């Protein structure tokens, strides 16, 4: 089977697709990953086939766009959301569409991110069976809860359904206008678009049931695979000597990682360190895309580049992170509580899901981050005994093997079998 994997977004979007590509390859299939040139090194070091596709954007470009989206709960949310689609999701969309159309010729199957409208249209036009993928249930309609705005609410099946339909109309009228313009330009036959545009073939819900509550009313074409976990080099990992010494000589640290979220790292680092000091804890800052750290050395602070989460989180007192699905899952598996600094609404949603499991306090939105708000959340962790809850929750977690389930479902689909949802 020849498989096409178009990818857009940050490393949090790329890593699950790398896990899927590895599994397809392990099972004997030919895989091509189509994404930004800046990811070429990460893909080729795994001996995977890489095709550079538009948009040819940089980490700095993504950073700026992601930081602007941190204000999506403010009055500028309509303007910011339209800009997010036009300048990030749909940048050079027609070129991407044509490139992926060409790559899709002769492909047997494709897996697309739910926001990658150019790739979806390309594989549809080439009549390639495809899967739409959700890495969070935030955008996926269900009768079991209303659309998420600020709170997790269940008004009952009838009102929930009505709210999702209303949200869909508003999406098309306001947020997804740039998408509608693109679909018109390529003469799409899709009558209406959603932020989770279903595939008629199969749809992967690549979400950990340990992190999010998965509704039981999804259609038969929805395959709940579990998280597509990417092994970031944990086996046989040898930490830097400086990190080993820091961990050995101090109490368990507060670990801060914002992954590929943008921002001004130095200003945020001061907030994280001052809040941790109030609780007498050292701090490890993973630099990430926002380059967290200080220019001058601090006795109780260590700035590090990439450290595998499985190694670092198990040695942490607590983890402060952006609420990405993979990072949230890693913190739960390590048995430590989280504090989520949400840069976008789906991350706020995941933070609230962690709160339902009593392993995190209420999330903090990026623009609300301060020493006061962070100290408040740390105090709530202690008062709510979330450290104990996190250890208990760790014991309930089981291996998910999400990428393997997705590949088996794709094989089964092309063989004419039923969807193993």
Key terms for this structure?
seven-stranded parallel beta sheet, six-stranded parallel beta sheet, alpha/beta, 421 residues
How do the strands and helices of this protein lay out in sequence?
Layout (H helix, E strand, L loop, with lengths): L1 E5 L4 H16 L3 E6 L4 H5 L4 E4 L6 H11 L7 H13 L3 H12 L4 E5 L3 H9 L4 E5 L22 H19 L1 H9 L16 E4 L16 E3 L16 H9 L4 E4 L7 H14 L4 E4 L14 E4 L4 H5 L4 E4 L3 H10 L3 E5 L2 H12 L7 E2 L5 H13 L2 H11 L5 H13 L7
Parallel strand pairs: 1-2, 1-4, 2-3, 4-5, 5-6, 6-7, 8-9, 8-11, 9-10, 11-12, 12-13
Helix pairs in contact: 1-16, 3-4, 5-6, 10-14
Brief write-up:
By secondary structure, the chain is α/β, with parallel strands linked by helices.
Would you kindly provide a written description of the structure presented here, covering whatever features stand out?
The protein has 421 residues and is an alpha/beta fold. The protein is built from 16 helices and 13 strands. The strands form two sheets. The chain has a seven-stranded parallel beta sheet with strand order 3-2-1-4-5-6-7, sandwiched between helices. The longest helix is centred in the middle third of the chain and has 19 residues. It is globular, with a radius of gyration of 21 Å.
């Amino acid at each position: 089977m020849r498989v096409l994997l178009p990818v857009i977004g940050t490393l949090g979007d790329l890593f699950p697709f790398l896990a899927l590509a590895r599994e397809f390859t392990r099972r004997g299939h030919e895989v091509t990953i189509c994404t930004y040139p800046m990811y070429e090194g990460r893909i080729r070091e795994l001996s995977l086939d890489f095709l550079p596709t538009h948009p040819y954007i940089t980490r700095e470009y993504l950073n700026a766009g992601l930081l602007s989206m941190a204000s999506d709960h403010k009055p500028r949310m309509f303007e910011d959301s339209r800009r997010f689609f036009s300048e990030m999701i749909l940048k050079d969309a027609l070129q991407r569409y044509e490139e992926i159309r060409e790559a899709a010729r002769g492909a047997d199957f494709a897996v697309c991110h739910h926001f990658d409208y150019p790739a979806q249209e390309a594989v549809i036009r080439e009549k390639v069976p495809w899967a739409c993928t959700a890495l969070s249930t935030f955008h996926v309609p269900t009768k079991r809860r209303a659309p998420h705005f600020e709170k997790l609410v269940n008004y009952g099946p009838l009102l929930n359904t009505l709210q999702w339909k209303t949200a869909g109309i508003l999406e098309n009228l306001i947020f997804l206008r740039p998408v509608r313009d693109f679909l018109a330009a390529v003469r799409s036959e899709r009558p209406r678009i959603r932020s989770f545009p279903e595939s008629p073939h199969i749809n992967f819900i690549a979400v950990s049931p340990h992190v999010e509550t998965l509704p039981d009313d999804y259609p038969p074409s929805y395959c709940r695979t579990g998280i597509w976990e990417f092994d970031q080099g944990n086996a046989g990992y040898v930490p830097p000597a400086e990190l080993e010494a820091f961990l050995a000589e101090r109490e368990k640290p507060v670990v801060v990682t914002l992954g590929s979220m943008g921002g001004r790292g130095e200003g945020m680092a001061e907030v994280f360190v001052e809040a941790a000091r109030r609780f007498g804890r050292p701090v490890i800052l993973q630099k990430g895309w926002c380059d967290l750290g200080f220019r001058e050395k601090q006795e109780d602070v260590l700035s590090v580049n990439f450290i595998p989460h499985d190694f670092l989180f198990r040695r942490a007192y607590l983890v402060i992170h952006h609420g990405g699905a993979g990072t949230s899952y890693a913190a739960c598996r390590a048995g430590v509580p989280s504090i989520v600094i949400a840069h976008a609404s789906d991350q706020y949603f995941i933070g609230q899901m962690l709160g339902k499991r009593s392993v995190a306090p209420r999330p903090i939105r990026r623009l609300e981050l301060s020493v006061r708000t962070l100290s408040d959340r740390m105090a709530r962790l202690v008062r709510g005994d979330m450290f104990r809850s996190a250890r208990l929750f760790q014991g309930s977690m089981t291996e998910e093997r999400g990428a393997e389930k997705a590949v088996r479902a794709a094989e089964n689909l092309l063989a004419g079998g039923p969807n193993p949802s």
